[in-house]
C-alpha cells in the first residue's frame, strides 16, 4: 500500500501515471518502425524474414532462456531509456518473424493485412472491451449484428432475422455449428448429452480437420465422422453421401449433420451444395457449409456461382481474415435466423445478462456462444468493407483468381511441372509437383525430398514462402506420390511478374537437386 | 483483370499501392486521437461514455441501417479525404463505446489496458500471422512456450516440461481442460465418443457458467454437472464433494473431472484446493482450477496463499487480461507437463504439420488445441511482464486488493450498506446492497429496483460503471433478496479518493429513490 503523505491515508499506485505521455513515447516510435517496415518491404529492402531450422536458435536470439532475469527487473522502472528499450524488443520480434507484407508470402491461406486493417486493430486495442454484453460494448455490438446481417445476405440469407456472430477462427465457427445442430435438432442433449444416441456426421475426405476435431470435442468421437469420397475434381460424391447415410443408419447411428466445403484446404474444391442440400433435407439433418477458405468467392464475379445453393444451408462459416485481408482472426458463422444462437447456446447467467430489451433480439452476444468474453472481430470487417467497398473486395478476389489462373496456365506448358489441382483453380491455391529431371520418374519419397528442398530454399532466399503437402488422395488409396507444392495467391500485391519470378526460382533451385 | 498497357499482359491490381503512405495518413492521426483520448480522460475532460437504453438508437448514430449504401461506395477510392473520413468513423465508434481508460470503469472483471499493452497489440497487428505452426510464426511460438513455462512455475508447476498454451478466453481454456481430461483418462473416447459412458463432472454452485457450457458442448449434458454446495464464505464444501461423487457413481455415472475455482465470478471466493486434490486423487479424476479471475492473486504478497495447493492440479486456467491489464483476450491453460496438449488434442493433418524437430517438443502449437489458427496472445503477456516486471505486477495486484479492502472497510460502518462478500475480500470485487432508507425493510424486487436505478444513474452520470447481480445463494435457497452491486476494483488508477467519490455518488442517487 503506497501512502501519499501529502494526503493522509490516501491509497495510490504510481504504476500508471502519465499514461498519455507513455503512449506518446512508446507508440509513436513503434508506429514509425511499422511504417518503415512496410516501406522497406515495398522498396525491396526487407525480405520475407529469416528461416530457422531449430527453434532453440531463436530462444538464444530473443534471450528467452533467461526469462527469470528479464522478469525480475522492470523496464519501465529500471531502464535508463524505457521507451527505447521496449521498442527495441518490439523490433527484435518483428525482425525474427515472417514478413507477411512481403509479396512472396504465399503460405497457407492468409496474407498481410492492410492500413485500414491496422486501423481497426488499433481501435479494438484502445477500446479493450469485451463483446459479451451490450452495456460494455454498445457500438461494437450493433456493428457486429448489422455487418453479419449484410454478410449473410450475400449468401442468400435474406430474411429479417438473418445474421451471424464471429468466433475465434474457422474451427470454432465449425465447432459451434455442430453444437447448434445437436442442440436444435435434439434439444434433450442439452440436458442429457449424447447418452443413448450415436450421432453421425458426414463430410468429404478432403474436408478440414476441424470437422473431425468437432466430432471429438462434442463427444461423438472420430468414428462418428463418415468421410465421403470425392470425384476427380475433389468434390463430394453425393451418391456416396446418400449411401453412407443409409449404411450408418443400419449400423445404429443417428444422422445429425453434414458439412460441405467451399474451398477445401488442399485443393480448394467446392462441393455441390444444391445436391447435398436435398440429401440433408431428406434425412432431416443439419446442412453446414465450411467456407472458411472459399466463402469469400461470393465477392468474385467469375467464381460466385461455385457457391450456388448456399442459401439452402443451415449455417455457413466464412472468414474475412483469409481471402479479404481483414486482420486475423475474423471468422463468421452465418445463419438464416440468428435467434438459433441463443436457442442453442444460452444458459441462464443472471449475474451477466440483465437486458431483455426485445424478446426477438439479443444484444448480449455472448449468450449465443459457448464462450463468454470475445474480441469484437466483426469491427475489423466493418472497417475493411467501408474502406474498399463491395467493389474493392470484388476487385481483390477477382485479381487473386486471375493470378492463380495465370500461374496454372504458365506451368501447364512447362517441362517438369504437373498441376494436380482443378483447372481453372476453384480457389486461390495451385497444387503442383515439380520434377527437375522430367525424363526420370521419381518415387514418392524422392519427390517429397525435392519439394521440401526447393520450398526451404525459396524460404531461405528470403523471397518466397510457399507451403507443401502430401496428396490427400494418397491417404485414401494408400499410394505415395510424395509431397507437392501448395502456392496460395491471396495478396493483391502479387502480379504476374511475381509469379514469373516464382517459377524462375523454382527451376533454379530445382537444378541444385537434379 | 487489370492489364497494364505499358507492359504487355501484365496482371496487376492497384488496391494496395502506397501502403506505407496510407499507413502514415491513417494510423498517425488515429494514434493522435488515441493519445488525446487518454490524455483527456486523465484530465477529467472525457467521461465513461454514453449510456444507451435502446440499441436501435445507436444504429441511427452510426448510420448502420444504411450499410447497403455505405458498402456500395469505397471510402478509399470515392472520398475526397479518405484518411480523414475513415479516421472519423474510428472516432465515432470510440466515442460511442465505453471508455475503459476511465477510473470509474469497475464493470465485470477487466479494466483498460495500458501503453505497453497497446504496443503488443500493434505488434500482433503488423505481424498479422497465425500461431498455428512454427514456420509462419517462429519468434512468437517460442515466446509463447517460454512465457507459459515461467507462468506455470508460479503456480508450482516446476518440472522441465511444465507449460501452457493460450486460448480465446477463460471459457475456452476451461472447455479445453475438460476435453483433455476425457481424452487422457478415457482415450477410447477420441474414437468412440461418450457412447456407453455417462461422465460426471463436479463444480461448486458458485462456479462460472463455462463449466456447464463445457459439459453441454462435450456431449455430457447439463445434468452431468453436479453442483456442490458452498460454505458461508462461498467455498466448495469438500465433504459434499465426496458424498456427491459417491452418489453419482451409485446412479451410474463415471466420475471424470472436478473444477475448483480461484476467484468465483460473483463473490470472488477461492475453493480449498488441497482438500479437493485429495478427493480427486482418490477417485482418479482430473483436477482443474478455474483461475480465470483469481489466478493472478499468485502475484499478490497478501493473497498468494489462497492458491495453496495449485501445484496439485492437473490444469489451471489463468487470464492475464483480467487482473493484469494485458489486452483482451489473453487466457492461459497451464499444465504440469505440456505434452498432454498434443496427446489429448492432436490429429494427423500432414498438409499443415510438417515439423518433427524433437519428439519431446511440439513447436506447431495448433496441434495441441482443438482449433487451428490462433492470435498469439502470449506475446502481449510477455511485453507486459517485461515492462512491469514481476514486482510491478505484484504492486498492481496488491494495490487492487488494498482498494477493495478499503472500500469494504468504509461501507461496513455506513448506514444502509450491507457487504455480502467475504471480508477481507478474497478477490477484487465487493458485493453489497445499499438501502437508502435503512429503517424500512425492502422486498427483493424493491431492492433490485433500487440497485438498478443507482447503477444506471452512475453510468448516466458518466463517472462510474459498476455491475449488479442477483445473489447466487438465492438460486439455491429459492429466496429473493434482490440484486446487489458488484464493484470491481481492478485498475491501478483507482485511489481511495475514487472509492470515496463512488460511495458519495451511491448515497446521492440513493436519495432520489428513497
UniProtKB/TrEMBL annotation, chains A, B:
<dbReference type="Pfam" id="PF00282">
    <property type="entry name" value="Pyridoxal_deC"/>
</dbReference>
<dbReference type="InterPro" id="IPR015424">
    <property type="entry name" value="PyrdxlP-dep_Trfase"/>
</dbReference>
<protein>
    <recommendedName>
        <fullName>Glutamate decarboxylase</fullName>
    </recommendedName>
</protein>
<keyword id="KW-0456">Lyase</keyword>
<dbReference type="GO" id="GO:0030170">
    <property type="term" value="F:pyridoxal phosphate binding"/>
</dbReference>
<keyword id="KW-0210">Decarboxylase</keyword>
<dbReference type="GO" id="GO:0016831">
    <property type="term" value="F:carboxy-lyase activity"/>
</dbReference>
<comment type="similarity">
    <text>Belongs to the group II decarboxylase family.</text>
</comment>
<dbReference type="InterPro" id="IPR015421">
    <property type="entry name" value="PyrdxlP-dep_Trfase_major"/>
</dbReference>
<keyword id="KW-0663">Pyridoxal phosphate</keyword>
<dbReference type="GO" id="GO:0005737">
    <property type="term" value="C:cytoplasm"/>
</dbReference>
<dbReference type="GO" id="GO:0019752">
    <property type="term" value="P:carboxylic acid metabolic process"/>
</dbReference>
<feature type="modified residue" description="N6-(pyridoxal phosphate)lysine">
    <location>
        <position position="322"/>
    </location>
</feature>
<dbReference type="InterPro" id="IPR002129">
    <property type="entry name" value="PyrdxlP-dep_de-COase"/>
</dbReference>
Amino acid at each position: 500500500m503506497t501512502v501519499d503523505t501529502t494526503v493522509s491515508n490516501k491509497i495510490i499506485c504510481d504504476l500508471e501515471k502519465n499514461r498519455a505521455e507513455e503512449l506518446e513515447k512508446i507508440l509513436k516510435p513503434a508506429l514509425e518502425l511499422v511504417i518503415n517496415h512496410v516501406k522497406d518491404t515495398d522498396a525491396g529492402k526487407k525480405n520475407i524474414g529469416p528461416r530457422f531450422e531449430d527453434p532453440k536458435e531463436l530462444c538464444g536470439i530473443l534471450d528467452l532462456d533467461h526469462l527469470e532475469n528479464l522478469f525480475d527487473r522492470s523496464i519501465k522502472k529500471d531502464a535508463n531509456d524505457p521507451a527505447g528499450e521496449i521498442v527495441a524488443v518490439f523490433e527484435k520480434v518483428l525482425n525474427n518473424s515472417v514478413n507477411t507484407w512481403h509479396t512472396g508470402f504465399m503460405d497457407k491461406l492468409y496474407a498481410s493485412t492492410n492500413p485500414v486493417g491496422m486501423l481497426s486493430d488499433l481501435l479494438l486495442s484502445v477500446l479493450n472491451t469485451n463483446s459479451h454484453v451490450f452495456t460494455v460494448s454498445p457500438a461494437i455490438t450493433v456493428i457486429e449484428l448489422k455487418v453479419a446481417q449484410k454478410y449473410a445476405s450475400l449468401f442468400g440469407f435474406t430474411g429479417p432475422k438473418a445474421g451471424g456472430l464471429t468466433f475465434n477462427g474457422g474451427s470454432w465457427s465449425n465447432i459451434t455449428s455442430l453444437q447448434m445442430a445437436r442442440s436444435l435438432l435434439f434439444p434433450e442433449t442439452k440436458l442429457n448429452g449424447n447418452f443413448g444416441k450415436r450421432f453421425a456426421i458426414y463430410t468429404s475426405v478432403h474436408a478440414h480437420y476441424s470437422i473431425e476435431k468437432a466430432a471429438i470435442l462434442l463427444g461423438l468421437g472420430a468414428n462418428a465422422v463418415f468421410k465421403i469420397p470425392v470425384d476427380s475434381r475433389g468434390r463430394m460424391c453425393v451418391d456416396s453421401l446418400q449411401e453412407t447415410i443409409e449404411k450408418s443408419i443400419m449400423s445404429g447411428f443417428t444422422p445429425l449433420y453434414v458439412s460441405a466445403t467451399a474451398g477445401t484446404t488442399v485443393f480448394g474444391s467446392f462441393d455441390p451444395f444444391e445436391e447435398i442440400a436435398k440429401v440433408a433435407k431428406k434425412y432431416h439433418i443439419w446442412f453446414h457449409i465450411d467456407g472458411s477458405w472459399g466463402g469469400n468467392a461470393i465477392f468474385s464475379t467469375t467464381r460466385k456461382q461455385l457457391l450456388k445453393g448456399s442459401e439452402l444451408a443451415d449455417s455457413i462459416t466464412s472468414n474475412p481474415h483469409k481471402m479479404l485481408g481483414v486482420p486475423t482472426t475474423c471468422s463468421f458463422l452465418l445463419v438464416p435466423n440468428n435467434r438459433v444462437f441463443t436457442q442453442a447456446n444460452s444458459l441462464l447467467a443472471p449475474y451477466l445478462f440483465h437486458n431483455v430489451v426485445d424478446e426477438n433480439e439479443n444484444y448480449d452476444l455472448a449468450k449465443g456462444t459457448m464462450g463468454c468474453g470475445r474480441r469484437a472481430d466483426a469491427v475489423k470487417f466493418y472497417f475493411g468493407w467501408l474502406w474498399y467497398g463491395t467493389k474493392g473486395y470484388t476487385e481483390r478476389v477477382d485479381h487473386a483468381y486471375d493470378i492463380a489462373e495465370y500461374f496454372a496456365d504458365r506451368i501447364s506448358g512447362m517441362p517438369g511441372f504437373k498441376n494436380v489441382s482443378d483447372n481453372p483453380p476453384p480457389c486461390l491455391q495451385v497444387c503442383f509437383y515439380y520434377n527437375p529431371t522430367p525424363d526420370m520418374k521419381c518415387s514418392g519419397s524422392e519427390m517429397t525430398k525435392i519439394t521440401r528442398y526447393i520450398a526451404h530454399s525459396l524460404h531461405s532466399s528470403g523471397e518466397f514462402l510457399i507451403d507443401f503437402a502430401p496428396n490427400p488422395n494418397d491417404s485414401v488409396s494408400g499410394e505415395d506420390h510424395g509431397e507437392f507444392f501448395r502456392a496460395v495467391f491471396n495478396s493483391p500485391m502479387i502480379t504476374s511478374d511475381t509469379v514469373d519470378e516464382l517459377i524462375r526460382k523454382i527451376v533454379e533451385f530445382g537444378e541444385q537437386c537434379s
